[in-house]
Specification:
heterodimer, A: 73 residues, mainly alpha, Non-ribosomal Peptide Synthetase Peptidyl Carrier Protein, Chain A, 4 helices, globular, B: 255 residues, alpha/beta, Rossmann fold, seven-stranded parallel sheet, 8 helices, binds NADP nicotinamide-adenine-dinucleotide phosphate
Chain lengths: 73, 255
């Protein structure tokens, strides 16, 4: 499940040159921008049926934080 | 009588529970129309109802309906005709929007957006044009398209395709329905801040918003600006206009 999540995130952020780590601060990725944000929101909804509020999302910092949203479901 | 008058006209407005549709309903009621307010959220439709001008000879109705549920739409139209009489005008404001890059537009998203923005509009038009539903004198059908149907922005391809489809459909529908004296036109607004876009990056992020504002020569619009154009296209003031798209965009597409 963890690997599938990391693969999806990599794909949605169009990251080709490295592996993602749970400890990464995704907001510091050079690929991170407002379109990437909307893409992640859409991915969480489509793949995991999770709708997340903007204010909730703001609290998430690391890839692990994002993953915990998925596992908490 | 002013050519803009809508007295005794039965006008069905979709998307009347919010934003532009709500303002159009208020505008039409001011010009004397009998307005049918349609949307999914009954509570917000009733709020709109409370905002309408309601003179002695006017009569308005609320009809909650999900436009992607075709059986529900059929029921709604027959109820409208039964309760209010034949329809003289349709203003189709219901719609959804998003900003998503190519990589995130799945087939599922395409289906969702085409269902909500295109199929629902076409099905609604079919229903109102069925025998016995539209006024024998004819009337006017107006779709809400968008400037995105003719210019581009990053992340807008999905929305733009749906709005382009509406704009393209208008011309052939105008040809087909002219013999019934039904005019078909679209309106393409530039950006008006409403619930549809208030959380999208071009409005929510100050830098992007500034860039967007500078693209509107006259600044961002108000729902009233769009509503006034809608009243024009619904009324006899536009009786010789069919098959057009009217850009109401503060100059966005002039540059
Ligand atoms: N605002 C802009 O800058 C702008 C620019 C260009 C074009 N437009 C177009 O103008 C139209 C109105 O936009 P707006 O800004 O007023 O948006 P809005 O405030 O979000 O209103 C959208 C309306 O559509 C209704 N709706 C959505 N899906 C529906 C469904 N399946 N069945 C029935 N009703 C549905 C909603 O009703 P419920 O919530 O009750 O379901 C709501 O009343 C849209 O077609 C939009 O694409 C807007």
């Amino acid at each position: 499940m963890e690997q599938k999540f990391l693969d999806l995130l990599k794909e949605i952020l169009e990251i080709e040159d490295r592996e993602l780590l749970m400890t990464d601060n995704f907001r510091e990725y050079p690929e991170w921008d407002s379109l990437a944000y909307l893409s992640v929101i859409a991915m969480l909804d489509e793949e995991y049926g999770i709708q997340i509020e903007g204010s909730e999302f703001k609290k998430l910092k690391t890839v692990g934080d994002l993953f915990s949203v998925v596992t908490k479901k | 009588m002013s050519p803009f008058d809508l007295k005794n006209r039965v006008i069905l407005i979709t998307g009347a529970s919010s934003g532009i549709g709500r303002q159009c309903a208020i505008g039409c009621s001011k010009f004397g129309a009998n307005v049918i307010l349609s949307g999914r959220d009954k509570g917000r439709l009733n709020e709109t109802l409370g905002m309408l001008r309601n003179d002695e000879n006017q009569c308005h109705a609320v009809m909650a309906c999900d436009l992607t549920d075709y059986a529900e739409v059929e029921r709604m139209i027959s109820q409208v005709v039964e309760k209010m009489g034949r329809i003289d005008g349709v203003l189709h404001c219901a719609g959804i929007s998003t900003t998503l890059p190519l990589r995130s537009v799945s087939i599922g998203k395409l289906e969702e957006y085409f269902n909500a923005n295109v199929f629902s509009a076409y099905n609604l038009t079919r229903e109102v044009c069925k025998a016995g539903n539209f006024s024998k004198e004819g009337g006017s059908i107006v779709f809400l398209s968008s400037v995105m149907a003719c210019v581009g922005e990053v992340g807008k391809s999905l929305y733009a395709m749906t709005k382009g489809a509406l704009r393209a459909g208008v011309k052939s529908l105008a040809c087909e329905l002219a013999r019934k004296n039904i005019r078909v036109n679209s309106i393409s607004p530039g950006v008006v801040i409403t619930p549809i876009n208030q959380n999208l990056p071009h409005i929510a992020e100050p830098e992007r918003r500034e860039a967007l504002e500078s693209k509107h020569l006259l600044g961002l619009g108000k729902a009233e600006d769009v509503a006034n154009a809608c009243v024009f296209l619904l009324s006899d003031a536009s009786r010789w206009i069919t098959g057009i798209d009217l850009c109401v965009d503060g100059g966005y597409t002039a540059m």
